[in-house]
Amino acid sequence: MGLVVKKVLTALALWCLIINTREIAERDALVAFNASINDPHGKLSSWRGENCCNWSGVRCSKKTGHVIQLDLGEYSLEGEINPSLAGLTNLVYLNLSQSDFGGVRIPEFIGSFNMLTHLDLSSAHFGGSIPPQLGNLSRLQYLDLSSSQITVDNFHWVSELSSLRYLDLSCLNLAASLDWLQAVNMLPLLQVLHLNDASLPFTNLNNLPHVNFTTLKILDLKSNTNLNSSLPSWIWNLSSLSELDLSSCGLSGKIPDELGKLTSLKFLALADNKLKGQIPRSANRLCKLVNLDLSRNLLSGDITETAKSLLPCMKGLQILDLADNKLKGNISGWLEQMESLRVLDLRELPNCWHKDSDLYIIDFSSNNFWGQIPSTIGSLSSLVTLHLSKNNLSGLLPTSLQSCNRLMFLDLEENNLSGNIPKWIGDGLQNLVFLSLGSNQFSGEIPEELSQLHALQYLDFGNNKLSGPVTHFLGNLTALHLGSPVWDTSPFIQFMVYGVGGAYFSVYTDTLEVKMKGMMLIFREYYRFKSVDLSANQLTGEIPSEIGFVSALSSLNLSRNHIGGSIPDEIGNLSNLESLDLSWNYLSGSIPQSLASLTSLSYLNLSYNKLSGKIPWGNQLETFIGDSYLGNVNLCGHPLSRICLPDSSKRQRHKLNLHFDIVTYLCMLLGFASGFAIVLIILISSAAARKAYFEFTDNKPNKLQKVGLKLHLNRALAARNLSMPTKSQNSLTC
């Protein structure tokens, strides 16, 4: 009995020793991994002590004590992955996403983690080809390698991942993977497939006689323009599909009636293709649809009839985009029934809005709409974004628009709208962050009431017929003051619709197109961009000194007006300014030296004014060429070829010095001549005088030189007295 107990205790001790040895080995592997990488944000600062299970991002099994999870996603790690990591043989979960591993190949040893079920290496800056060893991960359920510089030569290794449920290879280079569709078809448990923008090769999607991944819920192949196929018939057998995105895939042909089989669909995007014909009536079975995007195709037919078949079912539709097709008909009979609609893009301007609508975003930009903005638009009290730019709309702004007091983004540029800029914009739309009325026919003065728009970050009134002075309201736009908070409108402008499992499947994104630095630039995070454009109007007066208050401005454009006076020194307070255009005005005086303090300035245009004097020098001003100063005939200095002459005070001192020199030397000459004549007469008339003269010249040979030196010194001191201030002129003595 004692022998048995002894053996048991020995076995337990040996087992504990083995476990302890493995734990030490795993800790050492993590320490070596930490030593080989750079941790710029100090996310791994907790990696100290003996128990690695307490370290950030590390999780251990409660039963065995082994490291089973390494979750370092979004830690922004840099460097190389130490091969010692291969010692974590019990890993179930590995996430190294959002790192920078310098374009190296994915380590082959990752294929030895045969317990792994979750692998996320997305946006980690891996490169090269995918090691085929990843095909050994037979238990893997989640794989995300997206957004890296990886090239996939073949998909055979994917077909070995028989347990895979989630696969994302978006934004990789799959151009050589001719077998991608067949390999994916070998994954019977697959539920999510993301291959968007993956350079997929020419593929006939219909060459798949039988589908094995029938449990697929999300199919995302958008932005693979080489597919060049019709809608494949096997898609209609995916009855569990909730999201289908085949936008920008080069698809052609008609949308078949089989679309109605996909009754689980919540998101359908077939935009930017060459689909033609009518929207099938069978779409009335898609009762769960939240987002429908069929824009930029060749679809035709009567939208009224289509709507009648869709409406009884699509009560939950929130985003509808049918823009840029060949549809026709009247929408006023059905639009007001779509109570859940949040985003509408039809490229048609209806006048049928109702008070109960919860629309947040309306985008009718870039069309050929004509007529006036309908007054019923004022009933959209939830409206946050209104895009009506680049149309042919005319008339006055409807006063009902002031009821949309939640409005943050108002873009009406490039139309034919006229009249005065309404005062009620400042009184009623005080949440405005973006206001663009540029390229219209607005006239009159800029109302002072706009100074109440304390959230305003972008203002464009350029290319209108506005007159009057540049008012002081700019200084009151507190959102343009340095240190003011950034009004982040992205939760509204990037409108998300959520689906199964909380994963978003639709985003409405907005961009800002602005003339800056002499060109048209596009900004995606426009809510961080701060700009004022009052160019190409008939504004007069001077630039107010209050301009110095808007120190957070990125761009200021006052060009092509009738603005006079001088450039205020306060303009040097705009420390964030990147672009300044004051060209084609009547500005005069010198360019303030304070411009040299604008260290962010990369574009400057002061051309065609009446500026004069020497161009300031320093910092960014040293980088601009002569084009920035053209048409100012009285400017001089670098970078212009015109050399600056001495200024008037220097010229006056020079004239005084020259005059003093002439008088002094004339007096010296006359004195010398007179003295010489007297001495000569004495020498001729008296022998005693001749003897005294020669004794004098022998003993004092430098007397005349000293006299001349004293005269020169007196001249220099007199010239100095002339250049000193009046109150100190009498304080100097010789």
TrEMBL record:
Pfam families hit by this protein: LRR_1, LRR_8, LRRNT_2
Similarity comment: family membership: Belongs to the RLP family.
Top-rank lineage group of the source organism: Eukaryota
SMART domains, alphabetized: LRR_SD22, LRR_TYP
Source organism: Urochloa decumbens
Protein name: Leucine-rich repeat-containing N-terminal plant-type domain-containing protein
Domain Leucine-rich repeat-containing N-terminal plant-type span(s) in chain numbering: 26-61
Signal peptide: 1-21
Presence of the UniProt keyword Transferase in the record: no
InterPro entries the UniProt entry points to: Leu-rich_rpt (IPR001611), Leu-rich_rpt_typical-subtyp (IPR003591), LRR_dom_sf (IPR032675), LRR_N_plant-typ (IPR013210), RLP23-like (IPR046956)
Protein's membrane topology: Single-pass type I membrane protein
Residue ranges of the TM segments: 662-684
GO CC annotation: plasma membrane
Keywords: Brassinosteroid signaling pathway, Cell membrane, Glycoprotein, Leucine-rich repeat, Membrane, Repeat, Signal, Transmembrane, Transmembrane helix
GO biological process: anatomical structure morphogenesis; brassinosteroid mediated signaling pathway; plant organ development
Location(s) in or outside the cell: Cell membrane
PROSITE patterns: LRR (PS51450)
Keyword Zinc (UniProt): no
SUPFAM superfamilies named among the record's database cross-references: L domain-like
